[in-house]
Structures are given as C-alpha cells and as structure tokens.
C-alpha cells in the first residue's frame, strides 16, 4: 500500500486507534476499563510500541482527579520544555477558558535555575522543582524526563509539604528512574506511572491528553 | 539502591551511557562505527528501550553531511513544536554563533497553516511543509511525528525540486509511517531513519544532538 495522501488528521487518528484496538485484543490491555484504556491506547499511539503500556499503573482514582483539576484550571508543572510545548493550549482552553501559558509551570531553562544548578553541581530539574514548590498544591504534575524532579516532589508529598491533584510520573532512563517510580508508589496522592525504565515527555503529555478525552468528547 | 540525589547531569549521563554500553555488548549494535554508535546510544538513552536502534539505518554519509550543515548554520526544519523546543539552542550556537530561533523552521501552529489545513481537510503537517518548500535546500530536516510531512519532502526530492543536506526521518505511528520511510529509502539524499512504525519527536531531536557530539566533544 502506498501513501494515503488525502486522509485528514481525524481520519488518521481513527484508523490508528482501530489498528491498536485490533492488535491488542488478545492482551491484558483489552480488559482495561474505558478511561484507563484511553490512556493505554494513546501511549501506544505515541510510541507505536504495543508493549509500552504493559507496566502502566493507576492509583488513587487519578483519572477522576485529573478531570477535576483540569475543569478547575489547575496549574500544570512540566519537567521539560518539550512537555510544555507538547500540551495543547487549545484543548486546555476548551476545558476551561481560564487556562493560559502562565498555568504551565516550567522553570527548567530559567536563568536563576541554570545558575543555581551550576553553582551547586545539581541537576536543573531538581532546582526547577524547588523553585515551584509553593505552586504544587492541587497542581497536575507531569514528569517525562527527570527522575530527580519526580523524587523531590514525592519527598515533599511524603513529608506532608505539598499535595498535588495528580502526578503523572513517567521519567525515562537508566539512573534513578526505577527508584523514583518506587518512591511514587509510596505517595498518598493520585498518580499514573509507567513502572520500569520507560517513559518520556511525549508519554506524559499524551497521558494528560487522554484524560482530556473524557471531557472533550 | 535508593535515589542518588547528588549526581550532576553529567554524571547521570556518563553512568547511563556505561549501562547502555554494558547491556548492548552482545548485540549487533556493538559493531557500529563510533559516530553511528553515538546515535544508537542516544536513541536508547532517550527511550530506555534497548531495542529501539535495531532498525536504525544510515544512507549517503549522513553524519558527515549533518556535521557540515551544522557548521554552516543550515536551517533546521522541525515537523513539531516538541522538536523545536527540544533542540538545544545553546549547543547550536556553540557550533555556529549565527544560529538563532529563526533558523528553526516550524510552521505547524501558524495561523495560515491551521486555516489552510482546515479549509482543505488535509493535515497541518502537510501544509507546513508546503509553506517551507523554498527553504529546504541544504536544510536539516527533522521528522519525528508526521509521516505525510516526510512523504511530501521525499516527493519534492524525487521530483528534483529540493535537496536537503540531511533528512532525519523518524515519524511514528500506524498509518503512512512505514510507507513514508520506504519512500525515504528511494531518495538520493543523506538520511538517517528508524524503519518500521517506531519514531518520535524526542528521537529525531536526540539524533541531531548525537551528531553534535562529534563537533562539541
């Protein structure tokens, strides 16, 4: 089959979802409830990896928590610029017109954060969490890159200092990643995570977009 | 092992690369030449998937072509905002101080592109390529999302209309993706691709960052 030039974005998405549904019918994913399935489906759609959702976990009714936070225009902490730019402001504003760029908390490239990280020989991600500590209550936290950012927020939660509305904990990599996700599983807050090493900015973004599907469609 | 809080970003990267090296020693990746290995290593680093580079292909001396294009501050076409925001302007300017935001060609959210796509019921990605057609000669093309963007650029190349310096063809998904990469393999331009369905914005970005390693270190 050659290139199908004339498909619209909506048609491509529909056909992609049909293929994903078909190819996961004999897997445990087929047994997920509808809202959880929407997330698994989008994770597969984003990576074209039929096994990406195999380690997906939910705790504390996180989809309901995410929906409520979105409806009340909760701020969204982003651990990377790729997350911030990947989020659809159009969708956010369709959910709540109050949403604006100022709701997207992303300090990873702020000059004070870069300076502090260099001076203290720590990661920028860690310093960017510290900078936003006072804004994390009732926030949606999206982590797709930096395990230390996730670990620091989990530590704040465990110490009773902050209480986010929802944590999407999907850092990726080989150092501190598995450990940061284990810390997340100890936290008494709603969370969605991909256990193990896998994750990524696109995965954190698509998880929130999948939650939005429950409101927008 | 618990969280290693005090590691710097450089130390985390070094340890990650050590683990990746160790875990790929008995695979065909261990036989890659140094510059190609740098790309495979970063693809694995970005996804934490040891198999992501299994379908990596190179054609037309693409790393050399990419290095030359970067050194002469060639424009960089990005098919998504996530690619544009993921690229390190600091690294680009370290390679050539002429680099600025105007070198990053990304029209996917331009109002005229959105309007045209809606009016003609086509994808925004396709319309954004058409808008930048005159700027693709000697450009670096990064595709991590939209197969139709890749297919359209390949068609321009095959029709002799444009000649990019390098194409990183890594769209992701279930529709038009495999086909667009097959079209790329027919193009007489330097390219790097991940055959099959896999790809992503982060993978296209990291490929160019891996090429930069040959200049910056």
Plain-language structure description:
The structure is a homodimer of 217-residue chains. Chain A is an alpha/beta fold and 217 residues long. The first copy, chain A, has a single domain (54-216), classed as Cobalamin biosynthesis CobH/CbiC, precorrin-8X methylmutase (Rossmann fold, 3-Layer(aba) Sandwich), CATH 3.40.50. Chain A is 49% helix and 10% strand. The first copy, chain A, has helices spanning 9-23, 34-47, 62-71, 81-86, 89-95, 111-120, 124-131, 147-158, 177-184, 201-216; strands at residues 56-59, 76-78, 104-105, 140-143, 166-169, 191-194. Chain A has a six-stranded mixed beta sheet, with helices on both faces. In chain A, helix 8 packs parallel to helix 9 (177-184). The longest helix of chain A is centred in the C-terminal third of the chain and has 16 residues, at 201-216. The radius of gyration of chain A is 17 Å and the shape is globular. The mean pLDDT of chain A is 96. At the A-B interface, helix 1, helix 2, helix 4, helix 8 and helix 9 of A face helix 1, helix 2, helix 4, helix 8 and helix 9 of B. Chains A, B: This is Precorrin-8X methylmutase. Chains A, B: Pathway: Cofactor biosynthesis; adenosylcobalamin biosynthesis. Chains A, B: Keywords: Cobalamin biosynthesis, Isomerase.
Question: Keywords, please?
Answer:
alpha/beta; Rossmann fold; Precorrin-8X methylmutase (chains A, B); 10 helices; CobH/CbiC_sf (chains A, B); six-stranded mixed sheet; homodimer; cobalamin biosynthesis (chains A, B); 6 strands; 217 residues; globular
Short structural description:
The structure is a homodimer of 217-residue chains. Chain A is of the alpha/beta class and 217 residues long. Chain A has ten helices and six strands; from the N terminus they run ααβαβααβααβαβαβα.
């Amino acid at each position: 089959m050659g290139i199908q030039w004339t498909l619209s974005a909506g048609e491509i998405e529909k056909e992609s979802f049909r293929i994903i549904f078909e190819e996961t019918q004999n897997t445990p994913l087929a047994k997920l409830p509808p809202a959880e399935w929407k997330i698994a489906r989008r994770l597969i759609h984003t990576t074209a990896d039929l096994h990406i959702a195999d380690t997906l976990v939910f705790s504390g009714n996180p989809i309901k928590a995410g929906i409520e936070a979105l409806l009340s225009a909760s701020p969204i902490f982003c651990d990377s610029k790729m997350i911030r730019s990947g989020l659809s402001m159009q969708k956010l504003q369709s959910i709540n017109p109050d949403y604006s760029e100022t709701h997207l908390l992303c300090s990873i490239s702020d000059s004070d954060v870069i300076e502090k990280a260099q001076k203290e020989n720590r990661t920028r991600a860690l310093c960017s969490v510290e900078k936003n500590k006072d804004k994390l209550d009732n926030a949606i936290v999206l982590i797709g890159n930096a395990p230390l950012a996730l670990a620091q927020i989990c530590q704040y939660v465990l110490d009773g200092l902050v209480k986010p509305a929802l944590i999407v904990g999907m850092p990726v990599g080989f150092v501190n990643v598995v450990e940061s996700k284990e810390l997340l599983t100890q936290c008494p807050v709603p969370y969605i995570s991909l256990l193990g090493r896998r994750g990524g900015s696109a995965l954190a973004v698509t998880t929130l977009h999948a939650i939005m599907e429950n409101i927008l469609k």
